[in-house]
Amino acid sequence: MRKHFIYTLWGIFATFVVSAMLAFFAIWNGWIGYMPDIEDLQNPISRFATQVYSSDGKVLGTWNLNKENRIVIPYKKMSPYLIKALVATEDERFYEHSGIDFRALGRAIVKRGLLGQTNAGGGSTITQQLAKQLYSEKASSTLERLLQKPIEWVIAIKLERYYTKQEILALYLNYFDFLHNAVGIKTAANTYFNKEPKDLTLTEAATLIGLCKNPSLFNPVRYPERARDRRNVVLSQMVKAGYLDHAEYSQYSAEPLTLNFHRTDHKDGSATYLREYLRKYLMATRPEKKDYASWNYAQFVTDSILWNTDPLYGWCNKNFKKDGSPYNVYSDGLKVFTTVDSRMQRYAEEAVYQHVARYLQPAFSKEISSKPSSPYSDKLTPKQIKAILNRSVTQCERYRQMKEAGCSAEEIHDTFRKKIPMTVFTYHGDIDTLMSPLDSIRYYKTFLRSGFMSMDPKTGAVKAYVGGLDYTHFMYDMVSLGRRQVGSTIKPFLYSLAMENGFSPCDLAPNRQQTYMVAGRPWTPRNANHSRYGQMVPLSWGLAQSNNWISAYLMSKLNPSQFVQLLHDYGINNPDIHASLSLCLGPCEVSVSEMVSAYTAFANHGIRTAPMFVSRIEDNEGNTIATFQPRMNEVISADNAMKMLTMMMGVVDNGTAGRLRYRYKLEGQIGAKTGTTNNNSDGWFIAFTPQLVSGCWVGGEDRDIHFDSMSMGQGATMALPIWAIFMKKVYADVSLGYSPEVKFDIPADYNPCYHVGSGGEQDSFEQVNAIDEVFE
Questions:
Q1: Where in the numbering of this chain does the Glycosyl transferase family domain appear (predicted)?
Q2: What backbone phi and psi angles, to 5 degrees, belong to 129?
Q3: CA atoms of 711 and 364, how far apart (whole Å)
């Protein structure tokens, strides 16, 4: 009987062993449960954040999917403390097993499973934990979790076959989510300690490894004392494993928990507006007219031009990976190397903030503080202001959500007028207040907006890009997306058309007010300056003084349609520019990036260079998969470009941009143009040196938000100082290589004021012609 009983036990045991072997064989081959294929095992982490670099090698920020801000780094770039702390705490015999630690597993089964000792430790190895993180869904019950375990064991064994121990440790630390958008050890080290993983101290490494047990429970930001205790547990485990002695433990465990916490967010970092612009630019799809509203047809035209002419636009959907799928900036771990210089970017951001936030905004806030119409002009009626605000309401996210939820017009109306607690932006920090959504819309309109861009005229490399003053609260990009009337900054294009039609800077025009017929109606342009009224003045003087009468007279002698075509040649893509005499005063809407790019023609021998934002793109293995070259087109001849140079340098030396010399003490050769639109709605300044072309716009969110006085509202006051502050900082940084000593490529004996006669002879400098004589 006893013998029969023993045979029965052995039979049961054998059946169990055979069943287990069959089960593991089935799991191994994927017949039971989920088993990743070889390719998946060889590439277990499928989502990597794309890193955006400056031209001088600084990480500007990342693009990621679902906050998986993971940047993979190799084992050799991790602190040895991290490795030792991880092994000592999570898997002391890591280097001795092949994926499963049977001794630890047996201990866990007996002590935790049979004896109920919760402090007996777990049986999962680092490799098993990695398998769980990579391939196991969150279990909904204990039974489901028990069924997942055998699958994880098999995957762990397979991982050990494909990877070295160092690679497994690197995979584990690169994959783990350390909370606060810190996915992976590189982002975690930066988030909690503002360091690279290789630079972590012993206590810092122990703090991060302590999170591996339960990141929410031991969150060092919310529970610093609990996190410190857990860190010391990790240190004690390192003593047990022989990595530390007791004296070292006593020393390090007594240290306070010190963080340098900075939450990782795509809104943080440098060049935020540019990074967001590039993200959409790279991921753009082929434009389809049906996807654009009828009122947005101009954008469809612009996007179509970009799709066909710019390799960077929609690059991800024009290029494909080895598997045939398009690239994705959120998950493919690309490295995008921009042309932006991190130092120049910082100077540009500082210049915009210094002038707009610290000087213009206080003056503007003071001016509108006593206005019932604030922040709008007194010229608007209450009805007009209400209409503008209602339009803003219908464009905001709260309105769209309520509309989609089926709320009635009355419910939406009441919601937007009911005061609620909210946090609002100020330049002194966010504040908590009680305000209705409608009042908050009006409040945010009190802030002036700005856009600034700087680029190399020869290569097109964009060196600095500031789309606004605070991306978190003012996300609309005023460099590339925003278009505003350009005012007098359009005049150099008009004068260049005149040069192309045989004029010279010294040709004379009547400086007096005249009336012209525009679209069948009389049009009489006004001029702010009556200097030399009634005289015949050179065109160079007219441009330097930004004289509207000279521009209108000149336009009357040229072909408006030819002018529109020239504007397009300059890279101004707005299809809504209409040919008319009044176009000479800049009523058309253009972006800052288009204007800066257009002015490169004056500094580059008549050749306009398109903005180049990215120099190259690498894949997640460091292979260069795309390079980008300057895109250029000739707009005007080299000789006429030199004529324009002499005139635009006159704007600085003897004209409306003179304060660059007498107030800001900027030296060297500078060509420039100021611009101010009706009612001071827009302040512009575009200027260039032989090495840089930069431009700036300042104004309100709506055109009816502006300074009342010309002294504060003109481009020379609103925008010029930003350029001046930026250039002074650039010149002061000798490491950048920019100098006011560099000169334009103009021959020493060049004479801009000549006409070529029918016999080929040149008129002397003194022989100038009235414009009317040219057309006789």
A1: 57-238
A2: -60, -40
A3: 12
pLDDT at residue 699 tops 50: yes
Cβ atoms of residues 672 and 652 within 8 Å: yes
Helix/strand/coil for 164: coil
User: Does residue 371 have a pLDDT over 70?
Assistant: yes
Contact criterion met (CB below 8 Å) for 607 and 570: no
- CA 334/CA 617 separation, integer angstroms: 7
> Do 592 and 478 form a contact (C-beta atoms < 8 A)?
yes
- Written as one letter, the residue type at 292 is Y
AA identity, residue 473: H
Radius of gyration over alpha carbons of the chain, in Å? Answer: 34
Q: If DSSP states are collapsed to H, E and C, what string results for 541-605?
A: HHHHCCCHHHHHHHHHCCCHHHHHHHHHHCCCCCCCCCCCHHHHHCCCEECHHHHHHHHHHHHCC
Max CA pair span of the chain: 133
Rounded CA-CA distance 294/300 in Å is: 10
Paired tokens of 579: 């040919």
Q: Could you tell me if 299 and 482 are in contact, meaning their C-beta atoms sit under 8 angstroms apart?
A: no
Q: Where are the alpha helices (DSSP H) in 319-378?
A: 342-352, 361-368
- Could you tell me if residue 222 is left (phi over 0), alpha (psi between -120 and 50 degrees) or otherwise beta? alpha
Give the residue, 22 or 300, on which the prediction is more confident: 300
Q: What is the pLDDT of residues 615-629, one digit of tens each?
A: 999 998 889 999 999
Do residues 599 and 693 touch, judged by C-beta distance below 8 A?
yes
Per residue in 501-548, pLDDT tens? 999 999 999 999 999 988 788 999 998 888 899 899 999 999 999 999
**For residue 375, cis peptide bond before it (omega within 30 degrees of 0):** yes
Q: Which residues contact 164 (CB under 8 A, 6 or more apart)?
A: none
Q: Give the residue from 275, 148, 285 showing the smallest Cα distance to 613.
A: 275
Show the CA angle centred on residue 496, arms to residues 505 and 657, nearest 5°: 70
DSSP state of 735: G
Is the Cα dihedral 601, 604, 610, 613 positive or negative?
A: negative
Helix (H, G, I), strand (E, B) or coil at 130: helix
CA distance 427 to 361: 10
Summarised one tens digit per residue, pLDDT across range 594-644 is 999 999 999 999 999 999 999 999 998 889 999 999 999 999 999 999 999
| Nearest Cα residue to 176 out of 328, 65, 55, 69 | 69
**Per-residue tokens: 720:** 């010029």
Non-local (6+) Cβ contacts of 398 within 8 A are 415, 416, 437
The token pair at 602 is 């004056």
